[in-house]
Amino acid sequence: MSALLSIEGLGITFGGLKAVHDVGFSVREGEIVSVIGPNGAGKTTLFNMISGVYQPGAGRVSLSGEDVTGMRPDLLARRGLSRTFQNLQIFQSMTVLENAIAGYHLRESGSVLADLLGLPASRRRALTAREGARALLARVGLDRAAEREAGNLCYGALKRLEIARALALNPKVLLLDEPAAGCNAVETEEIDHLIAEVAASGVAILLVEHDMKMVMRISNHIVVLDHGEKIAEGDPATVSRDPAVIAAYLGTEADHADG
Amino acid sequence: MSELLQFLLSGVTVGAVYALVALGFTIIFNASDVVNFAQGEFVMLGGMTTVFAHAAGLPLPLAALVAILATAAIGVALNKLAIEPARGAPVVSLIIITIGASIFIRGAAQLVFDKQIHKLPAFSGDDPIVLLGATILPQSLWVICGALVVFAGLWFFFTRTLLGRAVLATSNNRLAAQLVGINTNFVMTLSFALSAGIGALAGVLVTPITLTSYDVGLGLALKGFAGAMLGGMGNPKGALAGGFLLGLLEALTAGYLSSQYKDAAAFVVILAVLFFMPQGLFGRKSTDRV
pTM for the full model? Predict the structure, then answer.
């Protein structure tokens, strides 16, 4: 099976600081790859480069074999790459349902004139989007909050809403930045199942997550970053025994002296 | 009674112009959070271009169309040349850029056109229509209908169409809009074109009544801005209501107090409203969270 998402030698510097340096790996269809590492290791920066929010300073990102390095997020979304954010990017003053519907619009195409006249095709399209969005909300357990204003939801619920919106795009590759953050144990398990289900449907999933139990449970492959560089990769069992990984997480004497 | 009606009619006419300018503010504000102070220049460009195109021999409707399209193109240029390169700058900086653009457009208009005051013929003659003892010019009806039609069009555009909703999504959260595949650059370009076109239309409609010259934009921008703020910035309904309300306030003050106080009275009322309702009459509470 060929890689849906592959990254080679990706790097970026911020004012002389190498935030990410020479990182490469790939994610295949139906595979769940997790990126882990201590705070500040460059995980979110890596995500931002892959999803076009930052322009990479070096390296290459390809989606289904096509070079998409530094492409705008909206164009990436149209090519099947969709993501969520650690700090949430939600349409705050829209309802939960409208947020999910927004994700659907990409699949539809219609003319402004047809919409204005309320032509049957245009109404049917709106109805399909609405039903599809409702089904997705049910999938993430937000169906009862559909009519509430998104800005009033709690963090955990917004995380799930963002996943629902990302799924509405019908992505080939899904980047999830800490999907379980702010969720309780039950919700985390639900997200677990959801991610596994999505992967089983053939979507390539790239995950950043701090909940190690979750990462070990669902990942096929783990990439470990520290100080912006890849220090290890492999299956969960291999990575969890890797001395470099343990050192990165627990720190060495010198690190502690740095503060 | 007929006196009051007369004041109301002239208030509604002036208010319709303010409403059109306020609607122009609303569109750009919705897409980008920027208050575009060059909005008044769009009105001036609409009027002046029509005058010169008409004088060059084009029939009036064609001259008006040329003016609206040309102004829309200038709106796009303003976005591409001045706003887009500064993306990521704080909103206040962008607003200052629009003030600079407004000064630039006024200066350029002085050179390209001239410094004279110009008039356009009224679309449907100059014979006043008598209504319950008061009179109204046919051209005033054009202005009022123009404002209502533009409002209705925008209302349907924003609530019914995919593209309109994309504009709202962009204003709500630009990054999230990009994530769901919305080309936010295109949304911005479209907003400037639309806003400039509507401003130009206002200029075309009002020039037969108020005349035009290179420097009419600033006053209109201020009044339109005040109308938009009164109604609640970002809300088309608010822009329409705010514009009309402001026009009525002015006309009534001018009629019953003195025309010298009309601007002052209008602004005092606006300050009072904003003091008690900082979001304006139709504005919604900000729901941003940190």
Answer: 0.83
